[in-house]
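> example.struct
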């Protein structure tokens, strides 16, 4: 799933490549998407590359290759996101993890070796968090997962399934279940659920540098992304992982 601007840029690049075989310039992309700066285009291209939709070709200036298009865009393969012909808003649903998470309920399970109950905490499993690939937020918020209380601290928590490999050097693998403590601030170096510009959610290490926020992957094949302080909202921090073998 892509944000609106990512979707528009991908279609624009694809249309120009099909028309002329040459990637559009940053200025042309900026004008087509009605953005104020080239840095916004750079962030969009980085996000598309991280998600596997485009590839930068080495040793060639302005060289981009479209690897794939979203399934919903198959019919728009040859269309350009001109101002008067941009995709309708109904084609997009923001990748936002809902707020106001319900408080976890405590359930009891008997152990296999005795009659004494073992407590578990039932956390809502809200969906898949991007760690190098798109996020798909679950709409069925009734899905839960049982967690040992020892993995949890104070406050509210929720669980997300990790998709992708951009945090693999931090020991976070594709398919892991991330246990997230709900919060809106985090210390430098924490691994957080970050909401970018109200649309895109990702799991990254956060660094605050002067008047900028850096979201760092833990995989050298992905780039660190830099944002203004008003572009990123923390929705929680990683406090535990569950892995199935």
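> example.seq
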């Amino acid at each position: 799933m892509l944000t609106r601007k990512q979707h528009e840029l991908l279609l624009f690049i694809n249309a120009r490549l099909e028309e002329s075989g040459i990637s559009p310039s940053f200025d042309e992309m900026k004008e087509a998407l009605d953005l104020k700066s080239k840095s916004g285009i750079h962030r969009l291209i980085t996000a598309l590359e991280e998600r596997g939709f485009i590839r930068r070709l080495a040793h060639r200036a302005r060289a981009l290759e479209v690897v794939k298009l979203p399934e919903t865009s198959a019919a728009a393969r040859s269309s350009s996101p001109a101002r008067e012909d941009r995709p309708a808003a109904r084609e997009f649903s923001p990748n936002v993890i809902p707020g106001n998470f319900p408080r976890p309920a405590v359930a009891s399970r008997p152990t296999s070796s005795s009659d004494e109950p073992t407590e578990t905490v039932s956390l809502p499993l809200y969906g898949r968090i991007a760690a190098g690939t798109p996020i798909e937020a679950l709409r069925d918020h009734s899905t839960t997962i049982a967690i040992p209380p020892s993995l949890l601290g104070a406050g509210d928590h929720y669980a997300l399934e990790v998709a992708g490999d951009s945090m693999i050097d931090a020991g976070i693998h594709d398919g892991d279940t991330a246990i997230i403590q709900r919060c809106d601030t985090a210390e430098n170096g924490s691994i957080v659920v970050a909401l970018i510009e109200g649309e895109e959610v990702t799991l990254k290490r956060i660094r605050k540098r002067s008047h900028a926020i850096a979201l760092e992957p833990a995989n050298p094949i992905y780039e660190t992304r830099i944002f203004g302080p008003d572009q990123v909202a923390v929705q929680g921090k990683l406090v535990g992982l569950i892995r199935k073998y």
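> remarks
The helical segments are 4-20, 26-33, 38-50.
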